[in-house]
Specification:
Shape: globular
Number of strands: 24
Strand order of the largest sheet: 1-24-23-22
Mean pLDDT: 82
Number of helices: 0
Radius of gyration: 17 Å
Structural class: mainly beta
Largest sheet: 4 strands, antiparallel
């Protein structure tokens, strides 16, 4: 069952679940791109963040009370944390360099993030502890797009493989270590972990359609979609919110698993 819940045009659409069946997404707010909540029951939206120039990646804490997001500033990409009601904004990135694409741990106490010290330095994946504001490099291998496993033990991401001279899907222990590369067909792209923790949800292009796979395939996105920019499982695992890039950037809810 497919249900379109948003049609606002947003480059690199992102979505995450919050408490009470709310979806959190980046949407156009005036001439800027901010963060809104989408109420699936009545279709209303509520503004969370609007006073930044651009919001890209975002995630919601496991308790549903906090949102962490990437903001593009004059100095580069920085991470911010804000309450779901828009109060108590806090800039997490300190010092020089870019930091982006943060993901909460299952206990909400730390983040997996991407960081680079300078514009020409490689991206690396780090672990940021929120209460003590400490950072730890999880792997010296250049890495991108970290996704934390439901048990918090592993970080999935794309790491540079010297043997093939390309970025490949791999797993790194959340306490740090070397990446263990995962063999997947070249047309697959990871979206996130399945809530059960035993599979990675990916998408592949199949003709003119997109197919979302665990094992076995679980949903086919209607033809006409150019790409999938993000996806997020509901905590119960019975619904998947998907950001589609087509003529517009839509958030689609897939239900009934």
């Amino acid at each position: 069952e497919y249900r379109d819940v948003s049609t606002d045009v947003v480059p690199n659409g992102r979505v995450a679940w919050a408490r009470g069946g709310l979806l959190v997404a980046n949407q156009r707010v005036g001439n800027r791109i901010g963060i809104v909540t989408l109420n699936l029951d009545d279709g209303t939206t509520r503004q969370v963040v609007s006073d930044v120039d651009y919001v890209s990646e975002l995630d919601v804490s496991p308790d549903g009370d906090r949102v962490v997001f990437t903001s593009l500033e004059s100095s580069g990409f920085s991470l911010w944390q804000v309450s779901l009601d828009g109060h108590a904004p806090r800039r997490l990135t300190a010092g020089h360099g870019d930091e982006m694409d943060a993901r909460f741990s299952p206990d909400g106490r730390w983040l997996a993030t991407m960081h680079r010290a300078t514009a020409d330095a490689p991206w690396i994946i780090r672990r940021r502890t929120l209460d003590a504001d400490e950072v730890q490099t999880l792997s010296e291998v250049s890495g991108r797009w970290p996704r934390v496993s439901p048990d918090g033990d592993w970080i999935a991401g794309y790491f540079f493989d010297e043997s093939s001279s390309q970025f490949r899907l791999a797993l790194v222990p959340s306490g740090g270590g070397s990446p263990s590369f995962v063999e997947v067909p070249g047309l697959y792209r990871m979206l996130d972990w399945h809530p059960g923790g035993s599979a990675l949800t990916c998408y592949r292009r199949d003709g003119s359609a997109m197919v979302i796979d665990d094992v076995p395939p679980i949903a086919e996105i209607p033809p006409g979609s150019l790409s999938i920019t993000d996806a997020s499982w509901s905590p119960s695992g019975d619904s998947l919110a998907v950001c589609l890039q087509s003529a517009t950037f839509d958030v689609t809810l897939v239900q009934g698993f």
